[in-house]
Here is the input.
Amino acid sequence: MKMQITQLKETRSELDRTLDFRARDFQISQLTEKVNGLQEQNELFRAENAKIKQHYKELYDSIKITRAKHTDQIAALKNENESLKVQLQHTASSVTTNQVKPKVLAPGKYAIDVEPIPPRNRNNREVHLVYLRHLKESVDTLREIVEEAKIERPLDRSLAFACRYTKHSQELLEYVFGT
Here is the structure.
């Protein structure tokens, strides 16, 4: 019996070793499968990462190109702005009363200037002052015309209103010139 027990123990230890090897082989195969799966995932992530890097590189290049274009556009606009400033200064300094051409001639001796300020000169103080002087002269001329017409037709209500309107316009322009 003792012998049988020792044999059984030996058999059992051999079986345990075999089972141990089998269990370890099974564990190794499972771990190998997991590692292979992780390696496949890693390759997919690397491919995705390469695509994303390429996309961002294209975006960066596009931004560089766009920035260069905008820099060129800004430089061109600055140059244009400077040339317009020079042109505006030249225009403002060259505007005189001799350059104004009358648009409407009233019968007889009167000339009326009704030309508006060009849009490029709207923020120029000197041009506005010259324009206001011409406007004041035109309103004076209009008032003289209306008063002469009122003398000829004293009962005409529209002429009376026009006379009052030109008088108020003249007073307003004198006030503006005073300030």
Notes: The longest helix spans residues 2-94. Residues 96-106 have pLDDT under 50 and may be disordered. Residues 109 and 136 are 17 Å apart (CA to CA). The chain is about 80% helix and 0% strand.
